[in-house]
Amino acid sequence: MREPDNIAQMKAILEAALLTSPQPLALDDLLKLFAGRMERATLRMLLDELKADWMEKTLELVQVASGYRFQAKEAYGEYLSRLNPERQPKYSRAVMETLAIIAYRQPVTRGDIEQIRGVAVNPNVIRQLQERDWIDIVGQREVPGRPALYATTKHFLDDLNLRSLAELPPFEAFAQSEIPLE
Amino acid sequence: MVHAINSLIKINGETLSALPQDLYIPPDALEVYLEAFEGPLDLLLYLIRKHNLDILDIPMADLTVQYMTYVDKMKAINLELAADYLLMSAMLIEIKSRMLLPKPAAVEEEDDPRAELVRRLMEYEAIKRAAQRLDAMPKVGQEIEVAAAYFQPVSQMKPPEVNLEDLVEAWRNVLKRAKLHQHHKLGRAELSVREHMSLLLRRLSKTPVLRFDELFDVAKEGIPTLVVHFLAMLELAKEGLIRITQQDAFGPIYVQASHSS
Asked: Best of B43, B145, B150, B152 to disrupt the A interface by mutation (most A CBs within 10 Å)?
């Protein structure tokens, strides 16, 4: 197999790999494509160019927590969703509030969640979030009972199109005292 | 609930001349509301917002009364749910009584007993907003479609190695088989109608009457054999060696040797 010797060829290889990968590809994955003959800086530059190349097309190259992936541009989402009428149902408020507490206050124990929400945590809620691979146990708090500490996963960031937790809307933005009723 | 409202309505210390439009909740609707609450903090927040109370200056007496009305209703509907709410009502009553007690001068700088409740309410409210925001964010599987062009990984269909010798060997095999094939054809030429006439008669000598379709082994024999077999049967009939009979239209056809009857 001949190694690519020009930029266009290298970009084409990156493009093929990213388009066919079922999950985001990290820089280290992409480096493998060139058998160690590529500098990280060059790779980043090529990815930027590739991103620009696709600007006018239906897909866009985005960077999420686990790496780079192609996804349909937002404008097509509404149409594409019609192809798959069996969408996941929305999560209950209990699930979303629990997720919000874990996302913004992690790592937290079940007790912390109960303290903030003022109600007992339904084990079902934690299970749903674990099954979705949005949260996992990252350790135990060294107190009696050694309760599990929950945190959000990379997969959660990927699914929400985020590169890191820092990209979540800042928590302070929600701490207002005047909030209209739903 | 509506009976509890007397002619003089005071909200947050101010007298209202008319009943606020959004204050009355029909009892049936209350049940729906209760199921919608995510716990005592959620219910408290609702009451505070619904009645335009200042979260930083909660009138404990009013709030406690309103809260207890809901909790009483809730106990009638769902005892299990009420546990968390009862705990909260105990806390509200405690705060209320502490506020009612005259403060000795020595502890004048004591913190407002509502401070902890307000802190928790504000934190919960922020989490509630954050949850709504997370819910509204586009997600993979909902609003985000990830590209996944089809690609059959090469490792799963790596072609086997082939060299010249393999190719030569393969060609030899083709030639060998072609010869066998030819040989077979010669064999076919021996499938004479006569031979089949004998076969048929031999079978009929063992079993005097056979059904037409029993004479043809469709599963085992190829079409040429079947055709020759059929021709043999016609030939036998023509020569008067067998009789072919059918009782009625579309009924079974029977074949028997002429001499057997």
From this structure: B145
Instruction: Please tell me the CATH code under which domain A93-176 is placed.
Output: 1.10.10.10
> What mean pLDDT do residues B92-117 have?
77
Give residue limits of the domains in chain B: 22-102+111-135, 193-257
**A7-80 topology per CATH:** Arc Repressor Mutant, subunit A (1.10.10)
Residue B242 β-bridge partners: B257
CA–CA–CA angle A61, B132, B43 (5° rounding): 170
* Residue A179 in tokens: 């909030």
Rounded Cα gap, residues B130 and A74, in angstroms: 22
The whole-model pTM stands at 0.59
Quick one: CA torsion of A101, A103, A108, A112, rounded to 10 degrees? Answer: -10
Query: What are the sequence ranges of the domains in chain A?
Result: 7-80, 93-176
Measure in Å the smallest separation between the Cα of B48 and chain A Cα atoms: 10
Q: Which of A80, A174, A126, A176 is nearest to B130 (CA)?
A: A174
Interchain contact, A22 vs B148, CB within 8 Å:
yes
Please report, in tens digits, the pLDDT of each residue of chain A (182 residues total).
Answer: 567 778 888 999 999 999 989 899 999 999 999 887 888 899 999 999 999 999 999 999 999 989 999 999 988 888 888 887 776 678 888 899 999 999 988 888 999 999 888 888 889 999 999 999 999 998 888 888 889 999 999 999 999 999 888 888 888 888 765 444 44
* pLDDT value, residue B13: 67
Residues A156 and A164: their CA atoms lie apart, in Å, by 10
* Interchain CB distance below 8 Å, B127 and A97: yes
**A74 near A119, Cβ under 8 Å?**
no
**A155 vs B: CB within 8 A:** no
DSSP per position, B38-98: -SHHHHHHHHHHHTT--TTS--HHHHHHHHHHHHHHHHHH-HHHHHHHHHHHHHHHHHHHH
Q: Tell me, what's the ipTM? A: 0.71
| pLDDT bucket at B3, cuts 50 / 70 / 90 | very low
Q: Which CATH class is domain B193-257?
A: mainly alpha
Residue-wise burial string across B164-193, b where 16 or more C-beta atoms lie within 10 A, e elsewhere: eeeeeeeeeeeeeeeeeeeeeeeeeeebeb
pLDDT in the model for residue B115: 85
Question: Cβ–Cβ of A97/B128 closer than 8 Å?
Answer: yes
In chain B, the DSSP E strands lie at 9-11, 14-16, 209-211, 242-246, 253-257
Any CB–CB contact under 8 A between A174 and chain B?
yes
